[in-house]
Write a structure and sequence with these properties.
Length: 397
């Protein structure tokens, strides 16, 4: 009798274990492999918050899609390409993640792309922007909700590029900066403006005196309107350093794209500066952004930032893809996501079929200063719509 009870208990335990395993097998695992620590930590935090909010918003708080629970796994690349590559392989292999999101650094992203192809699983790149991610280094498992360098470049060329304008660039000396300048240079060709000089500096540069001297020397004798256009991410604050060196004595203006709120504090020294931005929480007018601004303010006592919106877009994209297919097979997800339109805090995004780059609006701004606001406010001049930008397909696959 005792033996029968023991046997029944064992069978019951095995059945419960099997049911639990079956239930877990139905979970849809999302790995956020991102630069949680390191020089881009501030961006990474926003991206992570945004991803979670996107999953919550798109599932109406249930974290379930088609009866499957969404499970988020987090891994810290430390901003190092070799670590990012290893951790993505671990997420797809050991953790059996169905899909991955990240990272912040373009250098880390480029190291991770072949891992997605090797494991035949999707990596949504957010927020790394180097063109090569959806260009020469692209494979069919890569999607990107982040804007690319060309989208930044074309929108900023529209904002400041005009006949008779001379521009010199200051950018970080790695994929983000060099791809950004290459795209900006190409985008300027249709504007009548000319790029006269390119300056690249290490990502950890603190003293910009030598760079400024070269930039000013390249521009000071040029006729017409003159700009130093800055492409920079992370610390260093080149704007304040360049401004302190008095470019106005050569009639040189500073220009740049948008940035996170902390970086926009430096823009307060630059009233009237123009450029184009990916996101500023007061600009888009749509229900998704309304929800994001309200919820973020309520939960974190501050408005959502630049990369919060991008993270949210990636979360929404995952849920919308799962809604389109009841399968968690990669090929089915790729088929669902190619050409997919989805609503984000920025409005409509479209994953272009040819390279899986998300096409999206950008915003031409002019900095306004308000004594009650601690950063320079990117005030909307006009929305640059998807159809207003010619974004070339750069992959060679």
């Amino acid at each position: 009798m005792i033996r029968r009870i023991g046997l029944c208990s064992a069978l019951g335990l095995m059945t419960a274990t099997a049911l639990a395993f079956a239930a877990n097998a139905q979970d849809f695992k999302i790995a956020h492999v991102y630069d949680k620590t390191g020089p881009l930590e501030a961006y990474a935090k926003q991206s992570n918050i945004g991803l979670k909010l996107g999953l919550e918003y798109a599932t109406q708080g249930t974290m379930m899609v088609n009866g499957r629970k969404l499970v988020l796994i987090e891994k810290d690349t430390q901003g190092k390409p070799d670590v990012g590559k290893t951790l993505l392989a671990e997420a797809f292999g050991d953790d059996d993640a169905n899909i991955a999101v990240g990272p912040v650094s373009s250098g880390v992203a480029l190291a991770m792309l072949p891992v997605a192809q090797e494991h035949q699983k999707i990596l949504i790149v957010e927020p790394a922007v180097a063109d090569s991610v959806t260009g020469a280094a692209w494979n069919k498992y890569i999607f990107r909700t982040a804007r690319n360098s060309t989208q930044d470049a074309v929108s900023n060329a529209v904002a400041i590029g005009k006949p008779g304008v001379s521009i010199a660039t200051l950018a970080q000396d790695y994929a983000f900066g060099r791809d950004g300048v290459a795209a900006f240079k190409e985008a300027l060709k249709d504007t009548g403006a000319k790029l006269v000089f390119e300056e690249y500096a290490p990502t950890d540069t603190q003293d910009f005196t030598a760079s400024a001297q070269r930039l000013f020397d390249a521009l000071k004798n040029e006729p017409g309107r003159k700009f130093v256009f800055v492409i920079w991410a992370g610390g260093g604050n080149p704007f304040g350093k360049l401004k302190a060196l008095n470019p106005e004595r050569f009639n040189i203006e500073l220009a740049s794209g948008g940035n996170i709120l902390a970086a926009l504090k430096a823009y307060k020294q630059l009233p009237g500066m123009e450029g184009a931005t990916y996101y500023y929480y007061e600009i888009p007018k749509n229900p998704v952004n309304d929800w994001l601004v309200k919820e973020h303010q309520k939960r974190y006592n501050e408005p959502p930032d630049f990369f919060t919106a991008g993270g949210m877009a990636s979360g929404i994209a995952i849920v919308e893809a799962l809604k389109k297919t009841k399968s968690n097979k990669t090929d089915d997800l790729i088929a669902a996501m190619g050409g997919m339109e989805f609503e984000t805090p920025k409005g409509k995004m479209i994953f272009r079929k040819e390279d899986h780059q998300a096409l999206q609006a950008m915003y031409h701004f002019k900095i306004r200063v308000d004594d009650k606001v601690e950063w320079g406010i990117p005030e909307l001049v006009r929305e640059i719509k998807i159809e207003d930008m010619k974004i070339p397909i750069r992959n060679k696959k």
